[in-house]
Automatic annotation (TrEMBL):
<keyword id="KW-0548">Nucleotidyltransferase</keyword>
<feature type="domain" description="THIF-type NAD/FAD binding fold">
    <location>
        <begin position="9"/>
        <end position="245"/>
    </location>
</feature>
<keyword id="KW-0808">Transferase</keyword>
<dbReference type="InterPro" id="IPR045886">
    <property type="entry name" value="ThiF/MoeB/HesA"/>
</dbReference>
<dbReference type="InterPro" id="IPR000594">
    <property type="entry name" value="ThiF_NAD_FAD-bd"/>
</dbReference>
<protein>
    <submittedName>
        <fullName>Molybdopterin-synthase adenylyltransferase MoeB</fullName>
    </submittedName>
</protein>
<dbReference type="Pfam" id="PF00899">
    <property type="entry name" value="ThiF"/>
</dbReference>
<dbReference type="InterPro" id="IPR035985">
    <property type="entry name" value="Ubiquitin-activating_enz"/>
</dbReference>
<dbReference type="GO" id="GO:0016779">
    <property type="term" value="F:nucleotidyltransferase activity"/>
</dbReference>
């Protein structure tokens, strides 16, 4: 690291658990962020400020006035712009020394396999089950850790799925891809703005812990947040040996 980087990241370096070695791991890492909306905004902002060396933002949508209540990557001046490009501008404004790749696309299975294969960690900040399962399949196949978050109304959840660990479940162990789940959209159900900040920031924290090799991740645990009472519930999640994605049948 050069002198500017040592100064910029000095508060991380002061932490014994991180130090120079941990910060260098972050600078050498690449994070794939699927979705530049409510969750992707705080997650990507914290990854950029913390010094993840390469951030790839994937989103096929454009900035809309209704997004600005919670999607803090974007501004009124950038309404109508692609969210990926708007997000790139915001991240580089915070940290011009990192690389930010903006992809305005809805990545299919083949494209996800390519993008995940280039990542150190993946953050699923999408808003539908089809995308979540596609991202999960790619992460399992490429053995790349996945940090998954979701928020609707006053409820949030977050977990880590780490296919590098033999005991870690995948997203499909928790929400089987052959079962039908009803997607709940913010446009019809609403969402309490600060909760996407809470869950998105936690996604960034889990991603940074993984790449810096600090602490214990949420692998094997699902955290649920009731925003009305500000109460957390932790649920243990076991790997399903019969999971068609990560279990024995898929091997």
């Amino acid at each position: 690291m050069n002198d500017d980087q040592l100064l910029r990241y000095s508060r991380h370096i002061l932490l014994d658990e991180i130090g120079i070695e941990g910060q260098q791991r972050a600078l050498a890492a690449s994070a794939l962020v699927i979705g530049a909306g409510g969750l992707g905004s705080p997650a990507a902002l914290y990854l950029a400020s913390a010094g993840i060396g390469r951030i790839v933002l994937v989103d096929d949508d454009v900035v809309d006035l209704t997004n600005l209540q919670r999607q803090i990557l974007h501004t009124s001046e950038r309404i109508g712009q692609p969210k990926a490009e708007s997000g790139r501008a915001a991240l580089l404004a915070i940290n011009p020394d990192i690389e930010v790749v903006a992809l305005r696309e809805r990545a299919g299975d083949a494209r996800l396999a390519e993008l995940v294969g280039q990542a150190s960690v993946v953050l699923d900040c999408s808003d539908n089950f089809a995308t979540r399962h596609a991202v999960n399949r790619a992460c399992v196949a490429q053995r790349v850790p996945l940090v998954s978050g979701a928020v609707i109304r006053f409820d949030g959840q977050i977990s880590v799925f780490d296919p590098r660990r033999a005991d870690s479940p995948c997203y499909s162990c928790l929400f089987p891809q052959d079962q039908r789940f009803q997607d709940a959209a913010c446009s019809s159900m609403g969402v309490f703005a600060p909760l996407v900040g809470v869950i998105g920031a936690m996604q960034a924290a889990e991603a940074l812990k993984l790449v810096m090799q600090v602490g214990q991740s949420l692998a094997g645990r699902l955290l649920l947040l009731d925003g009305r009472g500000m109460e957390w519930t932790s649920i243990g999640v076991a790997r399903n040996a019969g999971c068609p994605v990560c279990g024995c049948e898929a091997a």
